[in-house]
């Protein structure tokens, strides 16, 4: 029995020993398992719009130490959480609470009303919703839950889609009564709250404002907006959270919150002046306003958002630009004239008003620009160069020119105050009259000069006009030449005539202008002589103004080259008798004739020269015998030169081409020839006529103009 008990006890001891060992091994294994659990590490990742902001490895049961600051967070389920308070028990991800994707392109989200932007007007909640919604990249955001409704935003209203989208994203909320109040002004704090949610920026409580109570709901968003640099307080140190936000403030706050910085250099180039009359270039929000509201596609193109451009000219709204054929980018120009090739509609000379991309567009026709006259052949086309427009010549630089630099300087100086740099002042009769009167009532006087020009010639105009402006003295040729170039500077197709005048068919020069098929005579020299007495040289006559006389109803008798003239005979007292029908000659040493019963009968015609004391030719006495009666007629004309030069047709321009070489200015005094009167510089003697008095203004010819220094446009400052 004892042996049995001993065996049992031995077996029991062995069992207990084994059990104890097993328990020890299990405990050790458990301890090992617990140790393994304690050493487990997980990865916590923080995202914003798909971008990893930070990652941290955290032991199981511990909490994240380095949560990115300045954001509010949601977990995988969309619940708003604070990652710093959550124990980590797995790989975890957190997302910026409002992971809203914005459009990357340059969005014009607020426009003006014509020339007004109304920067100080408030923005309503509905308008704010529409503005903010226009900035969202809905393709990236995807479908938005639209189960939220508002009592005052019915389906179909103008703000419905925008309000539902922002409400579905949790960016804008309504009120406890179920309304959204789209017509109510949005306040500064309300707009900042939405911007904080769009950017996932957490509220900040470290800042305080004297006008924002600690219990005010907007204290945190106001402080966050200040911290992010989206908004600023006022000079008095207050924030005014409940003040309606203005259109200008809205633009600036949204631009700052979305990281949108206006390209000031581009805006200065595209908008040389403010596009809004109520927003000056010095206005504090000028660049932000232009950046978000400029409606021209030109800015979009410069910022790289327009595609598919073709070489040549590009019309964008009211602007015209040139796309370089080599790089398909807009060409940048310095202000001034540029010859542009590979362009549409036509290669040629164009004008850039200011440094930049824009080429100025012009309508076809005459144009006054930079103190000169130009001609544009077609709308939006280039300036005409080396081109004759009937009587007007436009040189290689596009500017109208007489072909004489000195003459051009005199003409420009006289016409500058008349034209006043305005294209609308070209081809105006009142301006033409001003030009006419500048000679008629200016300090100009008659002075006989040698000519030798025959009837029908026109080679004298340029020299005569220049000398007339230089010396302010001359014969009818000089007066006519001077006025002709003044008229051309106004765009008139003025041309000279060398013919005869009055009953004696005296050699004379005047100016013609055709208007709407009617020819008009402008005779400034005889107008001066007859209206003022011409320094005593002329008899006073009451023929009225000789400005713009219809050719068929002129106040004097004008004999055009090639026309025959039937002059009445004179008796012994130089009194005209009844006209027997004699056709008097209009050229020296030709015969008079008479037509009887349809038969032309040439008459014996004797020419006698009229000379002065020095033997210089002054004219002729023509004697004709008819039916036993002798008739005489004095013809004051110059003898023909050795070779007569006919007037060129108006359709064929002279052979010379512009630019002409520099024209040396002749001296103010001309050396007298044998037929000259005393030079203009000789002091008048006692026989000179007294100065002419008139109620008309005296217009002096100024010296040739001096090119002014360029005016630098004033740039805006902050």
Quick summary of this structure?
With 718 residues, this protein is α+β, with helices and mostly antiparallel strands.
Please provide a written account of the structure.
- This protein is of the alpha+beta class.
- Among the domains are: 41-96, Listeria-Bacteroides repeat domain (Immunoglobulin-like); 401-559 and 647-718, no CATH class; 562-635, no CATH class.
- Helices cover 24% and strands 18% of the residues.
- The protein contains 15 helices and 25 strands.
- The protein has helices at 2-38, 125-133, 138-141, 160-168, 188-199, 219-228, 247-257, 264-270, 286-293, 297-302, 405-419, 429-440, 461-471, 476-489, 524-532; strands spanning 41-48, 51-59, 73-74, 80-81, 92-96, 312-316, 319-323, 336-340, 348-352, 365-369, 372-376, 387-389, 392-394, 445-446, 473-474, 494-501, 506-515, 518-522, 549-550, 558-559, 593-596, 599-602, 604-611, 617-626, 629-635.
- The protein has a 5-stranded mixed sheet with strand order 2-1-5-3-4, with no helix packed on it.
- Strand 14, helix 13 and strand 15 (473-474) form a beta-alpha-beta unit.
- Helix 2 crosses helix 4, helix 11 (405-419) packs across helix 12 and helix 12 (429-440) runs antiparallel to helix 14.
- It is rod-shaped and about 200 Å long.
């Amino acid at each position: 029995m004892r042996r049995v008990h001993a065996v049992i006890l031995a077996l029991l001891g062995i069992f207990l020993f084994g059990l104890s060992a097993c328990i020890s091994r299990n405990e050790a294994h458990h301890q090992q398992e617990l140790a393994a659990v304690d050493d487990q590490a997980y990865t916590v990742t923080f995202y914003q719009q798909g971008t990893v902001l930070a990652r941290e490895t955290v032991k199981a049961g511990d909490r994240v130490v380095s949560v990115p600051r300045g954001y509010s967070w949601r977990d995988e389920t969309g619940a708003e959480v604070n990652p710093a308070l959550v124990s980590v028990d797995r790989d975890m991800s957190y997302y910026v609470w409002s992971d809203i994707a914005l459009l990357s392109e340059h969005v014009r989200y607020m426009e003006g009303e014509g020339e007004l932007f109304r920067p100080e007007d408030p923005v309503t909640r509905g308008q704010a919703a529409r503005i903010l919604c226009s900035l969202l990249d809905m393709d990236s955001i995807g479908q938005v839950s639209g189960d939220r409704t508002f009592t005052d935003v019915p389906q179909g209203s103008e703000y419905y889609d925008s309000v539902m989208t922002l409400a579905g994203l949790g960016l804008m909320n309504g009120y406890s009564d179920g309304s959204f109040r789209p017509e109510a002004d949005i306040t500064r704090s309300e707009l900042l709250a939405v911007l904080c949610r769009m950017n996932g920026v957490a509220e900040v409580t470290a800042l305080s404002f004297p006008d924002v109570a600690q219990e005010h709901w907007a204290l945190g968003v106001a402080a966050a907006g200040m911290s992010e640099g989206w908004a600023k307080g006022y000079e008095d140190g207050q924030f005014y959270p409940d003040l309606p936000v203005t259109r200008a403030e809205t633009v600036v706050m949204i631009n700052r919150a979305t990281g949108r910085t206006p390209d000031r250099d581009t805006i200065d180039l595209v908008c040389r002046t403010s596009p809004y009359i109520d927003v000056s270039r010095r206005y504090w929000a000028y660049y932000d306003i232009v950046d978000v509201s400029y409606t021209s596609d030109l800015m979009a193109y410069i910022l790289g958002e327009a595609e598919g451009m073709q070489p040549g000219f590009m019309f964008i709204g009211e602007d015209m630009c040139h796309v370089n054929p080599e790089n398909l980018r807009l060409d940048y120009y310095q202000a001034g004239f540029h010859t542009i090739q590979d362009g549409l509609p036509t290669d040629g000379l164009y004008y850039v008003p200011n440094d930049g991309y824009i080429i100025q567009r012009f309508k076809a026709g005459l144009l006054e620009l930079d103190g000169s006259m130009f001609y544009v052949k077609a709308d939006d086309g280039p300036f005409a160069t080396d081109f004759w427009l009937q009587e007007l010549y436009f040189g290689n630089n596009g500017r109208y020119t007489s072909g004489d630099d000195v003459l051009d300087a005199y003409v420009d100086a006289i016409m500058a105050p008349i034209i006043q740099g305005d294209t609308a002042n070209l081809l105006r009769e009142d301006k033409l009259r001003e030009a006419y009167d500048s000679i008629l009532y200016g300090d100009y006087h008659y002075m006989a000069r040698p000519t030798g020009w025959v009837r029908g010639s026109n080679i004298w105009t340029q020299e005569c006009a220049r000398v007339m402006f230089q010396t302010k003295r001359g014969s009818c040729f000089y007066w006519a030449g001077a006025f002709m170039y003044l008229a051309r500077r106004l765009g008139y197709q003025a041309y000279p005539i060398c013919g005869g005048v009055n009953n004696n068919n005296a050699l004379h020069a005047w100016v013609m202008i055709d208007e709407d098929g009617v020819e008009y005579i402008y005779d400034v020299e005889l107008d001066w002589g007859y209206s003022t007495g011409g320094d005593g040289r002329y008899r006073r006559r009451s023929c009225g103004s000789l400005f713009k006389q219809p050719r068929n109803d002129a106040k004097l008798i004008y004999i055009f080259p090639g026309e025959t003239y039937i002059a009445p005979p004179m008796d012994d007292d130089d009194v005209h008798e009844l006209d027997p029908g004699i056709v008097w000659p209009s050229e020296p040493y030709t015969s008079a004739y008479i037509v009887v019963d349809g038969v032309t009968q040439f008459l014996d015609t004797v020419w006698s020269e009229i000379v002065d004391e020095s033997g210089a030719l002054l004219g002729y006495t023509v004697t004709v015998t008819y039916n036993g009666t002798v008739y005489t007629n004095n013809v004051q004309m110059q003898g023909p030169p050795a070779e007569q030069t006919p007037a060129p047709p108006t359709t064929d321009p002279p052979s010379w081409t512009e630019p002409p070489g520099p024209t040396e200015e002749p001296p103010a005094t001309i050396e007298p020839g044998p037929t000259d009167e005393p030079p203009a510089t000789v002091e008048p003697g006692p026989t000179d006529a007294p100065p002419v008095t008139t109620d008309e203004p005296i217009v002096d010819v100024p010296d040739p103009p001096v090119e002014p220094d360029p005016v630098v446009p004033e740039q805006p400052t902050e």
